[in-house]
Amino acid sequence: MNHLNDLPPWMAILIATFLIIGSTLALLGSVGLVRLRSYYQRLHAPTLSYSYGTLMTILSSILMFSYLETRPVVHELVIGVFVMITAPITLLMLGRAALRRDQDAKLAHEEAVPARETLRASPAGKLIRDVKRSGHPEPSPDQPGP
Amino acid sequence: MSRYLPHPLLSLSLVVMWLLLTRFSLGHLLLGSVIAIGAGWVVERVQPPKPRLRRWHLIPRLFFIVAYDILRSNIAVAKVVLLGPDNPRYHSGFIRLDLKLRDPNALAVLAIIVTSTPGTAWIEYNREEDWLLLHVLDVFSEDDWQALIHDRYEALLMEIFE
C-alpha cells in the first residue's frame, strides 16, 4: 500500500469521491433488483451500475494511476466502451424474450403486458393503459399505486 | 483502398484499442495495424450493413445530449429505488413509438442509448410496421414520449446516418 502514500490529500479526496459515487450507484442498482416489483421494472435497475456507476469507477482509476505513473493511463476506457456496448444488448434480449413469453397465454407469467392487438391500436408516444396478464382472467395494472 | 481496408472505422478503432492496452511503440503500432486490417477482412465476410456517416460534426452534440440525459435519469431512477416502487408518485408502463429511423446502424445506436438510459428499456422493435415498444419506469401520463425521443435522439441520428 506504499504507493497510496504518494497521493496528495486533494487527489485522494477526488478519487475517493468518484469511487464512492460509482459504487453507491452500483449498490443502488442491486438494491433495485430486490425492491422493484415487475420483471420489466427490474430491467431498469442494472443500468445504474453500468452507466454512471462504471464511468465513475473508471474515472477514479484513470485519475489515480495517471497521477502515480505520471503518464496518461486510459486503457480503462476500453472497459467502459465494452460495458456500454454489451450490457444494453443483454438487457434488450432479456426484455424481448420476456415479452414473447408474457404475450403467450400458455406460457403466462406473473407480469402484465399489453397484448399484440392493443400494441398496434394504442396512440404513439402515450402510456398504454390496457395492460393485462395473459392467461389470468382478472386484469391487473402493471403499475403500483393509482 | 476499400478492397484492402474494407472497414476503415473498425480497423482504426482496433488500432486505437491495441495502443491503449499496450504501451505506445512502433512495434505495437505495426502489430496492431496488421491485426486490425485482418479483422476488417474477417468482418467483411460477415457482410454487416456498412455505417455511412454523413455528418460527423453532430456526433459530439449527440454524445453530450446522451451523457446529460443518462446523468439525469440516473438520479431519477436512484430516487425511485430509494423511495420504493410502491410510492404513488411513480408510474411504470409500456409505451409504443412510431419510428422514422430505418438505418440498421442508427437503430443499433438508438437501442444502446435508450437501454443505457436508466428508466427506459427497449423491449421490442417491429421492422415491418416501424414501431418500437419501450418500458418506462417513471412516466407521467401526459408526457409525450414520441416527441421526446424524436427531438432528442431520432432526428440527430437521422441526420448523422441517413
From TrEMBL, chain A:
Q: Region (Disordered): which ranges?
A: 122-146
Keywords per UniProt:
Membrane, Transmembrane, Transmembrane helix
Q: Is Membrane tagged as a keyword?
A: yes
Q: Where is the composition biased (Basic and acidic residues)?
A: 127-136
This entry's Gene Ontology molecular function terms read: sodium:proton antiporter activity
Entry's transmembrane regions: 12-36, 48-68, 74-94
Q: Which NCBIfam families match?
A: CPA3_mnhG_phaG (TIGR01300)
| Protein name per the record | Multisubunit potassium/proton antiporter, PhaG subunit (TC 2.A.63.1.1)
UniProtKB/TrEMBL annotation, chain B:
Q: What is its main location?
A: membrane
Q: Which UniProt keywords apply?
A: Cell membrane, Membrane, Transmembrane, Transmembrane helix
State its location(s): Cell membrane
- Is Cell membrane among this UniProt entry's keywords? yes
Its Gene Ontology cellular component terms are: plasma membrane
InterPro entries, per the entry = Cation_antiport_E (IPR002758)
Q: How does it sit in the membrane?
A: Multi-pass membrane protein
Q: Name one GO molecular function term.
A: monoatomic cation transmembrane transporter activity
The answer to whether keyword Cell inner membrane applies is: no
Q: Name one Pfam family in it.
A: MNHE
Q: Where are the transmembrane segments?
A: 62-84, 105-123
User: Hey, which family's this protein in?
Assistant: Belongs to the CPA3 antiporters (TC 2.A.63) subunit E family.
PANTHER family reported in the protein's UniProt record: NA(+)/H(+) ANTIPORTER SUBUNIT E1, NA(+)_H(+) ANTIPORTER SUBUNIT E1
**Protein's UniProt name:** Multisubunit potassium/proton antiporter, PhaE subunit (TC 2.A.63.1.1)
| Protein source organism | Paracoccus sulfuroxidans
